Amino acid sequence: MARSNSFKKILFLALFLVFLSLPFFSFADDSLGQKKEFFIEPSYDINNRDKISATLRVSTNQIYFYVEDEWWDKFGTSKEAEIKSALISLSQFFQDKTYPILTSTFGSEWKPGIDKDNRIAVLFHSMKEEAAGYFKANDEYPKLQAQNSNEREMVYLNTKNIISPLSKIFLAHEFLHLITFNQKEKKYGVTEDTWLNEARAEYTPMLIGPDSDYQKSYLGERVNIFLDNPSDSLTEWNGGVADYGALNLFTYYLVEKYGVKILIDSLNSKETGIKSLDEVLIKNGFKDNFSRIFTDWTLAVFVNDCSFGEKYCYQNKSLKFIRVMPSINFLPFGSKSNLIVNQSTKDWSGNWVKFIGGKGILKIEFIGKSDKLFKIPYLLKDISGKYILNFLQLDENQKGEILIPGFLTEISSITLIPSAQSKTSGFSNTELETYFSWSASIVSEQELKEESDSIYLEKPLSSMTKEEISNKIVELVELINQLRSQLATLGTDKETESEVPVPFPCGRFEEDLSYGLIDSPKVNCLQEFLKSQGDDIYPEGLITGNFLSLTKSAVIRFQEKYADSILIPLGLKEGTGFVGVATRAKINELLQNKNF
Questions:
Q1: What's the CA gap between 404 and 54, in Å, rounded?
Q2: Residue 479: partners with Cβ closer than 8 Å, 6 or more residues away
Q3: How many whole angstroms separate alpha carbon 158 and alpha carbon 84?
Q4: In degrees to the nearest 10, what's the CA dihedral of 188, 193, 194, 197?
Q5: What crossing angle do the helices spanning 521-532 and 466-488 adopt, rounded to 10°?
Q6: pLDDT band at residue 499 under the 50/70/90 scheme
Q7: Three-class SS of residue 561?
Q8: Rounded to whole angstroms, how far apart are CA atoms 567 and 211?
């Protein structure tokens, strides 16, 4: 017996010494009805407090629900019972759905954590109207490192939602921040970019209940926020309501097109933010990077039509009818009309600028800051209502120009969607603005000719960049097209007064041509040929280089005129407007037999 007592003393002493050698931890000891003081975040609190008293009202084997005393004491027995019932329902949903789904998808929170308790704590307190909840990373550190730490795994929710079904979503959202801390900051020693941390949390409703009424209500609220402020930057994060609109819609688009694994794998990367997304896109076999996805998204929220392209729409039935309204700029119909637009933007913000009015050749010039990188897709809308997508090519100084012949007669509008895409890391809650400007004018052919006549090489070819050479080729092609048009008018020998046949300048047609081609020399050649076939084929006779409605109609008339050679062998009764093998063969046959 004496030996046994001696052994117990030695064992106790050893355990005590081991305990003293451990770092300081606070151990949770929570029981129903227990009051505690908690540090809170003043910027969220309705009265800017930094500490409140709260009581444990509901407890399960996974979660503690504390409710602010000052708020609770305002209610009678009936209301208290209603709140407790709501909290019990919320705890059951968290245990049955939220916790298993989110942890199996993204990984676990720190467990048992700083407080050596497997349960998490949720504190409901009175917050500002726009706040739904928050997570405070300081709670995961000892008070010696963070004075306002509550030294436990916990999140904070607004009491205004305590009996709302939306509390399920808000709890899931904040719980994912708790998971992110463990999977990113604790595991890799890096802090996730706030915007991407919020993006993952914004997707939790789709994971825990994609068809539920509360999810639809939450998504509907986010859609309204987005439509009210679609140009809010994805990456600037100041915690305002507007921040959640664009980010939510972008995250749904990202997952719909590339899968939720992109969010999961980027969380499990040592990289953060845009760099982590680019890394895992490559890892998962995608060729698109964040820049391309963002650009495609700015197109999708404007067009939102899967028939235009699978990247330019939402499949989610709740998002199928979203369309951003662009700012509209009207050009007077006079030939000397001119319009200048100055705008400011921030990195990773969408901008939608639409031009209508004017008639003739529309010229648009873009000028951005030379130290910024802009991407500018633009959509031409033809008179039949169809969109044609193109991209404005910018030089090294972020300047570029678009020429659109047939504006109003063939093209009814143009919508440009510029975005600044320079900064890729180090985002803050207030990012610097950058500026750009547009000028739009209706110009005459003579003015274009004078511009073309002044083309020259600003520096030796050996000193030019690839982009500069490409831009110069475009200029030269435009000049060649104008020279061809001028050559076509020189068909008479004035000395003999006899007609001199002018060879068709384009040669044989070896490639298929179809609706939607813009600024194409091959379409110029097609239009020259169609014009040579007479007014019954191409009465308008426009040589624009744009394969749009008028050109398509002319091709159809040509195909139906030579139906025996083109349509009947293919089993067709009507022209298609597509210049394929059979149509090209007939064109080449006519070219060979006669000079045009």
A1: 66
A2: 452, 455
A3: 15
A4: -60
A5: 10
A6: very low
A7: helix
A8: 49
Which pTM does this prediction carry? 0.74
Q: Tens of pLDDT along 252-271?
A: 999 999 999 999 999 999 99
Q: Scan for tokens 């003293």, then name that residue.
A: 20
Q: Is residue 385 packed enough to be buried (19+ CB in 10 Å), middle (13-18) or exposed (0-12)?
A: exposed
- In the chain, the N- to C-terminal Cα span, in Å, equals 120
**8 Å CB contact between 359 and 443:** no
338 three-state secondary structure: strand
H helix and E strand count, the chain: 19, 19
Residue 5 tokens, joined: 């007592």
Dihedral angle of Cα 165, 166, 172, 177, to the nearest 10 degrees: -150
- Tokens in use for 530? 């169609």
- What angle (nearest 5°) sits at the alpha carbon of residue 288, between those of residues 368 and 309? 90
Question: How far from chain centre, in Å, is Cα 542?
Answer: 38
Return the structure tokens found at 45: 């609190």
Single out the residue of 238, 266, 193 nearest to residue 425, CA to CA: 193
Cβ-proximal residues to 465 (8 Å cutoff; 6+ apart), any chain: 396
Ordered DSSP codes for 29-46: ---TT-EEEEE--TTTBT
> Would you state the structure tokens that stand for residue 525, as one six-digit string?
């050649």
Q: Please say whether the beta carbons of 398 and 370 come within 8 A.
A: yes
Residue 560 has pLDDT above 90, yes or no: yes
Which residues partner with 68 through β-bridges? 54
Quick check: 582 and 565 in contact, CB under 8 A? yes
Decide if 387 contacts 380 (C-beta within 8 A). yes
Q: Which two tokens stand for residue 277?
A: 């997304």
- DSSP letters for 110-159: PSSTTTT-SSEEEEEE-B-TT--EEE-GGGGS-TTT-TT---S-EEEEEG
Predicted confidence (pLDDT) per residue in 172-218, tens digit: 999 999 999 999 999 999 999 999 999 999 999 999 987 777 777 88
Please check whether residue 322 is in contact with residue 398, taking contact to mean a CB–CB distance below 8 angstroms: no
What span, in angstroms and rounded, lies between the C-alpha atoms of 387 and 376? 16
DSSP string, 4-25: HHHHHHHHHHHHHHHHHHSPP-
CA torsion 74→80→83→87, rounded to 10°? 120
